[in-house]
Design a protein that fits this description.
Layout lengths: L5 H26 L3 H5 L15 H5 L2 H24 L10 E3 L8 E3 L1 H13 L4 E10 L4 E10 L4 H10 L1 H9 L5 E9 L18
Parallel strand pairs: 4-5
Antiparallel strand pairs: 1-2, 3-4
Keywords: Membrane, Transmembrane, Transmembrane helix
Protein name: Alkaline shock response membrane anchor protein AmaP
Length: 207
């Protein structure tokens, strides 16, 4: 499962929204003639120039071109970093350090081992064709993402309840933390469950 830049996007949208809101308030105050009163400056006459001086002389200076070039490069780099942040990434967790409060040592456990144990437990449940989990975060606040493939006759709600009370409960016990965040993606397949036995169906034919 990929990890996306949702938090980064929300932060940038909030920043841009605040900047646009401030600019809009300034424009409204200026249009209403309130900006000059708040800033203590006198309003210019109707026939006077808003900006005095030779703007071409200021814009034609070498340092102006350098400043504009630096601003443009920074804006391009920020835009490139934002685009790169949109690419989904695995972001798997580093090995977990599991220890007891009364013990002097600790145990290093790879996140893929715990995810594999979770998948092995989930795969034994009725209706599960395959399970692929990724474990992220820390041992105190683990984040589990599971992609589950089930048969088309599986009761999804009942299966989720079984996973919570069995496989996830075992993982939470192994990590010694109740704060376990779990995200699930379910795919439905027409394939039968691996190792399952055929079921004979019976019923009444209505004509």
């Amino acid at each position: 499962m990929g990890q996306h830049a949702g938090t980064l996007n929300r932060i940038w949208l909030i920043v841009l929204g605040l900047l646009l809101l401030i600019a809009g308030i300034i424009v409204l105050l200026q249009a209403g003639g309130l900006l000059a009163g708040l800033s203590g400056m006198a309003l210019p006459d109707a026939g006077s120039r808003v900006i005095s001086g030779d703007l071409w002389a200021v814009a034609n200076r070498p340092e102006t071109a350098v400043i504009l070039g630096i601003v443009g490069i920074l804006a391009a780099l920020l835009g490139l970093l934002w685009i790169l942040a949109q690419l989904p990434r695995k972001g798997r967790a580093t090995p977990y350090r599991l220890h007891d409060g009364d013990a002097a040592g600790f145990t290093l456990c790879d996140a893929s081992v715990l995810a594999g144990a979770l998948d092995a437990s989930v795969s034994t449940l009725p209706g599960v064709v395959s399970s692929n989990s990724v474990l992220r975060g820390t041992a105190d606040a683990p984040d589990v993402t599971t992609r589950l493939t089930v048969t088309d006759r599986t009761d999804i709600q009942d299966l989720i309840s079984q996973i919570r009370t069995s496989a996830l409960a075992e993982l939470s016990t192994a990590l010694e933390t109740p704060r376990l965040r779990w995200r699930l993606q379910v795919d439905v397949s027409a394939r039968p469950q691996s190792g399952g036995s055929p079921v004979t169906a019976s019923g009444i034919v209505l004509r």
